[in-house]
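Notes, Module 5: Reading structure tokens.

Key idea: the token line is not a picture. It is a compressed description, and you learn to read it the same way you learned to read a sequence, by spotting repeated patterns. We will look at two proteins. The first is printed below with its tokens.
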Amino acid sequence: MSKIVWLMGPSGSGKDSLLTALRQQENNQLLVAHRYITRAADAGCENHIALSEKEFAQRQKQGLFALCWQAHRQSYAVGIELDIWLDSGLDVVVNGSRQHLVQARARYGDALVPICLHVSTDVLRKRLEARGRETAQQIEQRLQRAALYAPDLDNCMILNNDGSLDESVSSFIHLIY
């Protein structure tokens, strides 16, 4: 049975880096889904499809999204192509939202495999400082939010992302296969 991996983690935990690395793997069974987001195409590091609010609303009305949600004053979605990929026997990784895990589970049931990235506070601080997108105050706020990040340990596999990217990719592959 095909599975959808719902990858979650606090900002700066390495989701985008992990997804980029997974795209480079020679695994014909695993796809990394792009998201549709109402933000500029060059904003952040994520490989996404930029849509205006109007485009997003139109596609949502036309039923072109498998899942959609709001977060951080933006609209996010994964397209119905996700269902085609799953029906074709492929496994798909989605940069998911922990606030919308219930919605994803309702749609995909047992095919959904939630994975929560965990990063220690020291490593997270270094990564946030290195990317240079936030002020010192914003970094502290992100660290405080990350400290409150409590994955559902009963229903979520934990992937420690303190080590190298290669280690994380290997651990990810071992978790899902």
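Here is the second protein, with the sequence above and the tokens below, as before.
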Amino acid sequence: MAYDEGLAQRIREHLGAQDHITEKRMFGGLSFLCGGNMAVGVIGDELIVRVGPDGAAAALSRPGARVFDFTGRPMHGWVAVAASALAEDAALHGWLDQGHGYALGLPPK
């Protein structure tokens, strides 16, 4: 499965060249890891965000968000965000900051 390279580039531009951010191809897409923990990713034209179990309900109430169920089973603490909800940079940046913040709080791998 291909991923939206334009969305990936927007993620790179926002997260910048931070030493603790790495990219890795995963799930047929591209993932951005923080200290070895996945923070956000791109699968197809959707953004995948790690929001954590405590942040899931609030995240799912936001426009374009749904439970991430890549394998057909819901992944708790993760959401997928439709491309239509990411047109504005402010919306994308909010999601990126949330995923980055969550992953930053996890012990490095």
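Summary for the second protein:
- The helical segments are 5-15, 56-60, 89-104.
- The CA atoms of residues 39 and 99 lie 5 Å apart.
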